[in-house]
Specification:
By secondary structure, the chain is mostly helical. 74% of the residues lie in helices and 0% in strands. The chain contains 4 helices and no strands.
């Protein structure tokens, strides 16, 4: 029953929206495109005082690439160290077995 009531409420709400006139205040509430005002335009303009802090896309890309490469190298080094320790431990177990069986 609750489902039927909520469905009816949704249907009546959609009817009331379709019957409203298309005035500008209604459009802004629906978040449709409206032209920005003078303050918004001023905020979106490029500020010359902040230009020296602007990152350069190519140098940022290179720095990211170097970071990615260093991360891969460190992870590969860690994996290699784990592998070497596992192999050395296995060899030590084999030698311990061989000496205990030989004695």
């Amino acid at each position: 029953m609750a489902f039927l009531l909520s469905k009816t409420a949704m249907f009546s709400r959609s009817l009331s929206h379709s019957q409203k006139p298309e005035d500008p205040s209604f459009l802004s509430r629906r978040r449709l495109h409206i032209e920005p005002g003078a303050r918004e335009k001023a905020l979106l303009e490029e500020d010359p005082a902040l230009k020296r802090f602007k990152s350069h896309k190519k140098s940022v890309w290179r720095l990211k690439r170097v970071g990615d490469v260093l991360t891969i190298v460190v992870v590969a080094g860690c994996c290699y160290e784990i592998y070497v320790k596992a192999v050395m431990r296995e060899e030590a177990r084999k030698q311990a077995r061989a000496t205990s069986e030989g004695a």
